[in-house]
Amino acid sequence: MSFEDNLKPGSNFVLIPTTTDHAAKEFASEAETVLASVVAQPDSEHALEFWMHNA
Q1: pLDDT per residue rounded down to tens, the chain (55 residues)
Q2: Are 27 and 14 in contact (CB under 8 A)?
Q3: Over the range 18-31, which residues count as b (16 or more CB within 10 Å of their CB) and which as e?
Q4: Which residues contact 1 (CB under 8 A, 6 or more apart)?
Q5: Are 24 and 31 a contacting pair, CB within 8 Å?
């Protein structure tokens, strides 16, 4: 079940702060990795676009 599915009306899933915090840290870590890649290799800008559309 995806994060978006958990937000749909009627969902029995309850987000707790630790889950939200973990998800935020994971997202930030992935973003940092992708951005570092784009800075190191400007021709990999498409990787940033791909990641943003699939995040």
Answers
A1: 565 555 566 655 555 556 677 788 888 888 787 777 767 666 656 666 776 776 5
A2: no
A3: eeeeeeeeeeeeee
A4: 13
A5: no
